[in-house]
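Hi W., the magnesium ion complex you wanted:
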Amino acid sequence: MALQHGKTLNTHISPDTWRSTIILLKRMVQQLEVNDVNFEELKRNLDFTASLLEAFYTNRTQQSFDADDDLQLRSDVVPVEVRDWLASTFTQRVQPFSQRLEEKPKFRSIVHAVQAGIFVERMFRKAYSNAMPDQPADVIICLRDLDRWSFDVFSLDSVSSGHSLKTLFIELIIKHHLNSRFKVPLSCLMSFLCELERGYSKHTNAYHNHTHAADVTHTVHCLLLHTGVLYWLTDLEVLACLFAAAIHDYEHTGNSNNFHIYTRSEMAMIYNDRSVQESHHVSASFRLLQNENTNIFMNLTRPEWLELRTLVIEMVLGTDMSSHVLQVKAMRTCLQQHESIDKPKALSLILHAADISHPAKPWSLHSRWTPRLMEEFFTQGDKEAELGLSISPLCDRHNTPVSQSQIAFIEFIVEPTFSLISDMSEKIIIPLIQDTTDPSICSRYRGLQWTVADLVGFRSMWMRHTEENKSRWRDKMKNGESHSYESEIQTEEETAGKEH
Ligand SMILES: Nc1nc2c(ncn2[C@@H]2O[C@H](COP(=O)(O)O)[C@@H](O)[C@H]2O)c(=O)[nH]1
Ligand SMILES: [Mg+2]
Ligand SMILES: [Zn+2]
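Structure:
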């Protein structure tokens, strides 16, 4: 096993990298013991290990230096511990994830712990598959399309008796081996997902319900897979992405943030008018985890939990549409200026794209989401009229040019976002492919072989759909638009049923 020479190390070192390095060191010792040494490989591996330790050291010292900048501290006067405390208390920096030096386990005990961990993980995987309830045949058939962009979440919802979110989340957690990796207790997972689905039904929304959450969760999985970004992520980051997608609209009230602000709702008061609903989605979901029976992350270590929470908060807050322009602009600038891509920013953009992805999907899906969304907008318009407020844009059921607004939404919001996702993914993936000629480095990289072709295919796939959908809306405009979208929910479903 040889680690790639010259690979630049991110300043944050993942547990996977630490583990691979420990195994690597151990193997080098064994090779030296039996005098079976390839000097070139040994040199490269030692070089890599030194870079890792250097990156770790730089990371720790950098935390103090950044704090110095923020707090204007003079490093010769303030001791490191005090600087760490100031940085973690008075800046937005989170406590470093590393353990305190005196708590660090010895090398041999780390190797034993890794071996024991692998054993426990295997046992756990077996126990999980034994305890999983059998799925109905129709659900199994439907889930065969899980990796496809055209996956029909409405069908899954119907064959799973209205449990698309629960079914999909469990399937994805198992598919990515996250249940065994993070020892998610099955009973907790079941109870958590029941509560989650219950929260999504609280306001009986036409659009922002558990099916939308299932759709976004599936789309995040597909985006990670089809863009290859999956291979850039640690297991914890994949878990954070799927979790953030599943909870991203939890207990949505069916109104916009502006409606909350104008009506001075309880939520607007709690969150000071800032990303009102998004703040609630995250906060209420993490509150669910406070209960022992629904705490699916009970076996995460403290640093893992903190890292996951930080990532999930950033991702879900990034679904606030008012941050769209800033998000897109920041990522465009980053790509143009050849800066390295910030992982939380990239993952937030992926969740945001998934959240607005239905216009980039086949018409059979997009045409079923649109009337649902419009009906929810119109219900808000009805409430606004009742309260004597002016009706928000696109919320007047008697006077909204739906087709025109959909074309504009696709052209000005969806296409630029997806174009950015494609560009960003290329920038992330191409160096990874060049870096990983030896697939034994990490089994997750194996899928990279086909990713470049897939990435090109992904761009042409979503473009084909947005073009087709715009053209369908143009046809509707030509044929005289119907404003009665309530009745169209039924009609479109029947059409889609015939198409499948
Ligand atoms: N006019 C349209 N707006 C859309 C459409 N699909 C989504 N959206 C908007 O995006 C947000 C997504 O955020 P969410 O977390 O609330 O789901 C949604 O609220 C809409 O404002 C669309 O097809 N047309
Ligand atoms: Mg939302
Ligand atoms: Zn959403």
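The radius of gyration is 25 Å.

W.
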